[in-house]
Amino acid sequence: MSDSVFFAIAPLLVVSLGGLLLMMTEVFATRRADADGPSSDLAMGTFITMLAGAITAFALWLVGPDNLAGAKAVAPYLLVDRFTLFFDMVLCLGGGIAALLAGGYLPEHKLDRGEFYPLLIFSTAGAMVLASAGDLLSLFIGLETMSLGVYAMVGFRRGSMRSTEAAIKYFLLGSFAAALLMYGGALLYGVTGKTALAGIGAAIRAGVSSTDWGILLLSMVLILAGLAFKVSAVPFHMWTPDAYEGAPTPATSFMAVAVKSAAFAMMLRVLISVFGDPLSTSWGTGWPPVVALLAVLTMTVANLVAGRQSSVKRMLAYSSVAHAGYVLVGVVALVEEPGTAQGSIMFYLLSYTVSTAGAFGALILCGSRGKEAVSYEDLAGLGKRHPAVALIFSFFLLSLAGMPPTAGFFGKLYIVSSSIGAGLHTLAVLLVLNSVLAAYYYLRVMEYMYMREPAAGAPIAVPMRSGYVRAALAICAVAVLVLGLWPTSSLSMAIDAALALR
Amino acid sequence: MSSFAVLAIAAGLIAAAVPTRGSRTHRLSLAAITAFVVLAIGWLWPEGAATAPAAAKEAVEGADTSPSILLNLLIGVPIGGAIALLFLPRQMLSLVRGFTYAIFAVTFLLSLWLLSVPMTDGWHFQYIADWIPIAGIRYHVALDGISLWLVVLTTFTTPIAAFASFGSIDKRIKELCIAFLMLQGAMIGTFLALDLFLFYVFWELMLIPMFLLIGIWGGAERRMAAMKFFIYTMAGSVLMLAAILYLVWTHHELNGFWTFDYLALCQVVLPGVPGTISPQALCFWAFTLAFFIKVPVFPLHTWLPDAHVQAPTGGSVVLAAVMLKMGTYGYLRFSMGLFPAQAAHAAATLAGLVIMFGIIWGALCAWKQSDVKRLVAYSSVAHLGFVMLGLFGATTSGIKGAVLQMINHGIATGALFLLVGVIYDRRHTREVSEFGGLAKVMPVYATLFVIVTMASIGVPGTNGFIGEFMVIAGTFVSERLNQFGPIQAVAAAFGVILAAVYMLGVVQKMFFGPLSNPKNKTLKDISPRETLALAPLILVIFLIGWFPQLMLDRMDAAVQTTRLRFVNTVLEVSPNPKAAQAVPPGVFSESFLKGAPKKPSADPKKKKVAMRPTKRGGAK
Q1: Is A350 part of any domain?
Q2: What CA–CA distance (Å, rounded) separates B435 from B432?
Q3: B245 and A416: CB-CB below 8 Å?
Q4: How many CB pairs under 8 A join A and B?
Q5: Which domain covers residue A502, as residue numbers?
Q6: Most buried of A76, A113, A244, B289, CB within 10 angstroms?
Q7: pLDDT of B59 above 70
Q8: Per the omega criterion (within 30 degrees of 0), is the bond before B159 cis?
Q9: Residue B124 gets which letter from DSSP?
């Protein structure tokens, strides 16, 4: 059985089949008018589907991707290696948490329509394809599958102008980015005559003529720009705050977590397999200076702007941009320290996933219908009124700020370590200084929650009650603590996964 | 020993007789505290001189049997207590308070246990466990004669701060208790950690409870002050983190295995000649900056007056008594321990800086303050200038004086903040001009204030005198300070005079003269609760002032080792501007290196692959 092709791509199949099943269930489900909405069962179904996907991926990890004969049948369109499996787990985790959050959020805010969950599942499936794609074609299919679902989720609150605006913005810029990527890919195909990433990389390494080198550079720039859109690096981040703010919060959490992780997976694959040759990775003629510049801009601009926000959701959006900047520092370190840097990026994405999903989840928990927590003022005095909610929110914020002993701290430490090992001392110092800037706005949330009283007559956020959201937060909190205090096993998994991609 | 028991009973009886209008519990508590202190003196008193060498010899053999779990308990009990407190109902105030006191009592008794082991050369109570083996991070805690006193200071002052806080703070008691317990656990951890990763974890962990203490229970500008405190400290410490990682990488290049252990990283000499910009200099300054911010040293001190003024009394006490010592301790242990050449090179300049801008300028600033709490805050800048001066001089007397002065400052300034808190609770102002002639309405308070002032300005017979004298004496003869030593000693002595000027000036204005302000006429004298909080501090002022040897004896070996290591490394390692090198074997003593990580022999291939695959694997 273990040489069957179905077995090799089981995580993807499990998630997709689960999605189809849930979609059909929803279509034929009959509900009485007074019954609970579709979220009551779909959220759990989606979570279980994702969990099954993650467990299957872990099972394949234990079997060992090298022992999967079936994997060869789908290569190079879908590569099944430890890198893929690691990202499958991260993406399923992110998607599963988003589903749980949606299970609480959608009914509370009268958005309870069943479409959300299939969209979420198929987006996740697209992200998983993207993370495992070893060919330009499958890469593009994965990218579009993932993005289309997310576009729809962003515009899910149809009555709201803001949500619609966000969806349009995200759709336009997202298509633009996809077009850039596509154009870059087309140029690559033109130069090398191949669509498989490994094949293109081999052709470039074998040497190209100087005219072709020019085209190659152009395609590199186009692909980097497209990737930068997807990971929302400055100056390609303009859509992020609007889209994140307008979208329903579970969708925001999914975008911040899963979409970003998948985009980084794509970035790692493309940069390592295609542009891994000495010329492309040199500081004179290749991508490192561009990515370094992107990293510095992303961290600094995002942190400075995030400090000026009055909406917590927007602040979290900018913070996710800033985190992309930290990861980009790790990407630059790939050149000198490929193994450590990749391990650090992957561990960072894992820790970032649980911290960010937790932070958005806590923000969801802070507000109920009509009394949503949006601005800092809404949160004033929350620490006194609802200490447990405030405590868990603070915990995730501290993880994002990189305070020990949380996952965020170890992730950041490891990225800084890999960049110092790669000799990028300036970037490392800029990164740590940026985390001081970032501490300011994370702490400001705590300041409002613990150290202020709400102004007289001001709207007060009332926490909602939802077992789904609480469960999601519990999962995230345990993960943040475990990754922060005992990172050994997850770290060695990340490093093993990194080794696969060389 | 029995004579001390008699003395203790006598002292207890006298203490019980002191309060003129005290209740029975008040008298009993005072008597208990006094008797306890006298017993402690007796317990710490060195046995007969003839038996001392034998005891020391026995101790060397017995050192390994010291219970290594003790330090874990010291760190774990407060932190565990804080977590347990989360689950106690917030309405049951007496339960919450009682639980907190119980935890503090346990920690304090555990820390007294530390004193039972003779502090011979090397590490005591060492406990090592693998934590994150893949990155070479270990849980490594150990104690020497220097950290011993700082740990005891922590377990001694934090309960007092909490006790005082419960008197004046009545909102959100549960959070307050959690913050104090977390703070105590993290502070103890910082003093005990010998793994730089662990040290950094505790160092940062400490910030959050302090941030909350200032920000929730502080004064009018508390939010700004809390934020400033946090951002300032974090800015310094992240640079230290980068430097730690650089050191770790260099160690890996040299020795081929990962470790964050202090004992291993001590043996790495980074490339660089003192006086030029080099990795060594940059890393030294990254560490030193973090510590200087904490101390604080001019011009990085601007967070301190705000934090102190805005913090509640209990927060100020912990901040002054313990947290500022993190900076001086860190400089002694890490900046001087890891980068001796740089520290030696910069010593003379830095000593000039702390004298000019710490001791003298800080004193002048304190003189001009109209707010008493701000005045005490600036006096901290001046006092910690003395501590730093002792460390820069790097003579035995200087370092001992510095360590003693760390304790002294903790006791005296802690007591001063408590006293300022007393008057603030009554009048809700701290402006000196609001007061005058207070001695007439609050005689006991005035007496206590004068005693603590004497300790703070270093009058003989109090603890401050011993520390300052040793530091100045050390500065005078220091080789590190070249020909400037004597001049600097004189300038520092001038700072002592200035301290007397501003402290006595404020005492005169507040307590003596006519009782001009009618609002002060009805002030109540110090309450039993407040006396109880102050009593231990005042007793310890005299304990150290009269019997400094009790403390100096126990830190002697550790100070000698630290100093010798510092001096020897400077002498024996010739600077190399290009490449990192290892300290030659034999410079560090065996007892110091006990517990240093060894290169893992089992399966080295896997280890290497795990952390760091071949270079440029993807490219070629």
Answers
A1: yes
A2: 6
A3: yes
A4: 124
A5: 287-502
A6: A244
A7: no
A8: no
A9: E
Q: Which residue of B has its CA nearest to A401?
A: B234
Residue A236, domain member (yes or no): no
Task: List CB contacts (< 8 A) between B242 and chain A.
Answer: 416, 420, 425, 428-429, 432
Torsion of CA A401, A404, A233, A357, to 10 degrees: -80
The alpha carbon of residue A235 is apart from the nearest alpha carbon of chain B, in Å, by 26
Write the DSSP symbol of residue A1: -
Alpha helices in A79-208 (DSSP H): 82-108, 116-132, 136-154, 161-192, 197-206
Q: What percent of chain A has pLDDT over 90?
A: 56
The predicted pLDDT at position B61 comes to 47
C-alpha atoms less than 13 angstroms from C-alpha of B244 in its C-beta half-sphere: 25
**Of the partner residues B215, B238, B615, the one whose CB lies closest to the CB of residue A436:** B238
Q: Take residue A283 and report the two structure tokens written for it.
A: 């500081």
Does any domain span residue A333? yes
* Minimum Cα–Cα distance from A416: chain B residue: B242
pLDDT in the model for residue B66: 63
Of B479, B481, B477, B459, the C-alpha closest to B468 is B459
Domain boundaries, chain B: 1-47, 347-546
Question: Residue A24: CB partners within 8 Å, gap ≥ 6?
Answer: none
Q: Provide the pLDDT confidence category of residue B618 given band limits of 50, 70 and 90.
A: very low
Q: Do A436 and B234 touch (CB under 8 A)?
A: yes
Q: Are A39 and A103 in contact (CB under 8 A)?
A: yes
**CA geometry: angle at A171 spanning A169 and A172, to 5°?**
70
With 0-12 / 13-18 / 19 or more C-beta atoms within 10 angstroms meaning exposed / middle / buried, residue A198 is middle
The mean of the pLDDT values for chain B is: 85
Q: With a cut of 70, say whether residue B53 has pLDDT above it.
A: no
Cα(A54)–Cα(A89) distance, rounded to whole angstroms? 5
Q: What is the pLDDT of residues B192-233, one digit of tens each?
A: 999 999 999 999 999 999 999 999 998 888 899 999 999 999
How many independent structural domains does chain A possess?
A: 1
CA distance B97 to B167: 11
Alpha-carbon torsion (A487, A492, A495, A501), positive or negative: negative
Average pLDDT value for residue range B567-572: 82
Query: What is the SS3 assignment for A375?
Result: strand
Distance between CA B331 and CA B316 in Å, rounded?
A: 22
Query: Are B146 and B333 a contacting pair, CB within 8 Å?
Result: yes
